[in-house]
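go over my protein:
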Amino acid sequence: MSENRGISKSVLYLMSASAGLVVANNYYNQPLLNLIAIDFGVSEAAVSNVPLFTQLGYAFGLLFIIPLGDKFPRKKMVMVDFIVIIISLLAMAIAPSLPILILSGFVVGFSCVVPQVFVPMAAQLANPENRGSAIGIVMSGLLIGILGSRFISGYVGEYFGWRAMYYGATGIMLILWLLLKLKLPELQPDFKGTYKQLMQSTWHYFKTESPVRLAAVRGGLGFAGFSAFWTTLVFVMEDNFNYGSGIAGAFGLLGIGGALAATVIGKLSDRMNKNNLISLATLIMLLAWVIFEFSGNSTLGMVIGVLLVDMGLQSLHITNQNIIFSRNQDARNRINTIYMVGYFAGGALGTVTGAYAWELFHWEGVATLGLFYTILILISHFSFKKTESA
């Protein structure tokens, strides 16, 4: 495979910003759930289907779209995908009912997989000794997008209504489409077979690459707890603290501190033993969930917990990706598909179980659920880490 040696900082940061702005579309809904529920006159459990189906759409997009990055020119694929993103965001803005909103959210999730094209692109374009750093920069943008999206949508929803957020997002995507068309480099694919053969080879990698499967399990369990937290945060803010969607969204700003650590973690993962880094990241998340257990009525506890859970998850995520991208260099998009499908399937699981944990046991149930998922990460990691060479 022909690797491009080096990537300009301007292109790398454009990819980072693009990753954040695109992935944000998947998360605008979370601080808006209470407003949407009131608008359509539905329950909290019913409206939680909006983030659930958005995450499911993302998982399906990862499975069926991202492998195409090994078959088609990357830039052309991104440009076409953006058209679907723009149309689906506009559909969310004008949705007349909850079912239409849920369906539109699914298409938004399905099409907003562009960041998962940028991550392996950065890995391919970067020098091998800087691969972790390049991944970390793109991931920093992606993670800031995830967390900042909640802050922005919380305040936009509170002052302008939830639909305004989706009209604004449509405009942002139009501008970004133009910038990427002008600046994004093209990368030609290596795979020459049919789409069926492409998907069969993805299944082959899933069966034969145990380090990728282990990374997907770790990432999925970590993101399950993370999604349970963010899906229910707006409800605990309202019920326990009497805060609105704006304050719930503002918690996303706290998590940006953890996201900024992604660049540092990327550099560390180029130098440190990756198994040790994963163990440390998981212990940080474990500490966060223990703090959450006792913070149902403590703003300070919630703040500390958010900082720690974001830092731990992002450290885990970037180290996982550095491990899997160092293998099978001619199939990075397919490898990334396997990992990210597991990651976002875990997110969907966390959204569903988090909503039910809230309804049945309120915040204590959500915190216990997150603790349970994190303990499972430790068990799986220490049971199977010998299958991967870090």
